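WARN no homologs supplied; continuing
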Amino acid sequence: MTDHWQTLGAQAAGAQERRISDLFRHNNRSAVFSTQTGDMLFDYSKTNIDAATRDTLVLLARDAGVEDRREAMFTGAKINETEGRAVLHTALRNLDGGAVMFDGQDVMAQVHDTLAAMRRFANRIRESGITDVVNIGIGGSDLGPAMATAALSPYHDGPRCHFVSNVDGADISDKLRGLDAKTTLVIVASKTFTTVETMTNARTARAWMRDHGGDPKRQFAALSSATDKTESFGIDPDQVFGFEEWVGGRYSVWGPIGLSLMIAIGAKAFDAFLRGAQAMDIHFRAADLHENMPVLLALTGIWHNQICGYATRAVLPYDERLAMLPSYLQQLEMESNGKGVLMDGSDAPHHTGPVVWGAAGTNGQHAFYQLIHQGTRIVPCEFLLAARGHEPDLHHHHQLLIANCLAQSKALMEGRSLETARKIAADKGFTGADLERQARHRVFGGNRPSTTLLYPQLDPFTLGQIIALYEHRVFVEGVILGINSFDQWGVELGKELATSLQPVVDGTKQASNDYPSTATLVAYIHRHQG
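OK structure emitted
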């Protein structure tokens, strides 16, 4: 480990007895420990990071090569080294930028052509009498568009969108129930058109459409580069939208995978979504590391996870329409940085990605906030909040939402002392030993870190900014940790074993003696399947 890691360890040890609230004794902490790009504000003042620690974290990022690696990513270098691929999802939202080179070719003409084809198709569907769109995918082919479509529901003026991902038959059965096969478009999202869960659901949807009077040839589209397979499936080539290998699944909502979103909100709003992400790209690429929002978000994460040893972080959007954001970020962060091997193949000498989880406020307050406030483990919290909602006639709702969000971060930092708790217990009529016992139950240790991301309103531009912010955060953390954030070999083993176990589950093959537990479980299942 470098000297910076050791310095940070010493700084963390020195901060153990320091309260975050004491740092606010210094003038302008809130201003000095926050950064802004456009109308978006990131406040990390309620963490135990002081000026010296921030300087060390920035040196850590700089010496890890974040700036050089960032430029390599934007200029088409094959930074996904285990798969020999470039990482160019940023090109998909490069609406106003210049050339983006890959293997000596400018990819932007192709990007603009694909986007134009998506616009034409989306406009045609929105004018065609189609009432419902069913997007069938999994992982990045589902979580991105599903999350974004839910987030931007105030902008929906097209067909209703439904998302099917789980191979569990309950998922597709519930989503198709009540739909009219004659007015439903099915989008099958799979780059290779071989993903087992997706293709199983696609065949079920095709049979449903045929059985109920629809026309699969006219009412199916594909988001795939495997045009031979889409043609064999029976999908019109004019309704197939491909994307390149330099677009990873969990980074793909900006291109054809976002087609369902474009159909829901229209091409103009989708362009605003792309421009928001582009604005964050420009900031990330140009801003000094001390003022760089994705970098500071990443460095805060490194400080909490690798340095302070906090194994999880909670993402807490006080925005009901971002209820799926924690699930989206689980994939983005945990699939990207959930690695135990460095780029050179050696074992990681430190923990890598944290466990990411969360829920929308205020619901979470009545679920897991008890643990966050008084549990034995410290959970850094990341709050997200809009200044304005979309329901002007319910302004008082939004004011209450804002008050709750700000109160939670304040409570996490300040806590409640035993002295104050004793007064509360006394006011409730408790005395003697009972007072002391009751008081201790009302103590909040506080000194628990949080960050807050503020934005004017959750519109398409802002959502693009938020997603790109977290994408770049993952990138920066991966570079600092020395891992490849853009492969996902950990997904493969279970899929391979599922394929080999299918005949055992079907009863056409005996379970191997090497897996007695599996054999026992399968025997139980067979008994109860009759």
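The two ends are 58 Å apart (CA to CA).
OK
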